[in-house]
């Protein structure tokens, strides 16, 4: 069955108009002709109206398939992402989509394709980041000392 043409609000107005015409005593076949719909649609609307009143004819959004990870599970996932990959049992602290998929399957028992994990993370407002590459031999203390002592002296020489 194809979806009728029109916004949900326009379709609701059409259903409400059909009920108004039914209340005025007009036949269902005539209502279908006037509104440009199938008679079975008018019968379905009348049945919904008798069962649930005019509220049953209201516009509803198509919700789609429910997510496999609940909102609570997504919050738990986000907390783990913030803690880092090492705390989840991975050798480095870099989160990749395959690692996130593996973590989701181990923790929540839900299997996601790697491509969908990327969409899931994007929906959680996470974006891909390039890891900062640093030399293994890097000495942070020596760098800080150089920035505080040597760099200002070099800056002064250059300016003047």
Automatic annotation (TrEMBL):
Signal peptide: none annotated. It holds the Pfam family HTH_23. Residues 92-149 form the Winged helix-turn helix domain. It comes from the Bacteria. This is IS630 family transposase.
């Amino acid at each position: 069955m194809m979806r009728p043409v029109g916004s949900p609000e326009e379709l609701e107005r059409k259903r409400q108009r059909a009920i108004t015409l039914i209340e005025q005593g007009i036949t269902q076949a005539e209502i279908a002709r006037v509104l440009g719909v199938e008679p079975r649609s008018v019968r379905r609307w009348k049945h919904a109206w008798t069962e649930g009143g005019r509220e049953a004819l209201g516009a509803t959004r198509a919700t789609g398939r429910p997510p496999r990870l609940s909102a609570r599970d997504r919050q738990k996932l986000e907390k783990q992402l913030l803690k880092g990959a090492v705390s989840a049992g991975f050798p480095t602290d870099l989160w990749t989509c395959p690692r996130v998929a593996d973590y989701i399957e181990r923790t929540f028992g839900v299997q996601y394709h790697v491509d969908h994990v990327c969409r899931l993370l994007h929906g959680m407002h996470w974006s891909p980041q390039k890891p900062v590459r640093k030399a293994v031999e890097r000495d942070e203390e020596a760098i800080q000392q150089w920035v505080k002592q040597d760099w200002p002296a070099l800056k002064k020489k250059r300016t003047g």
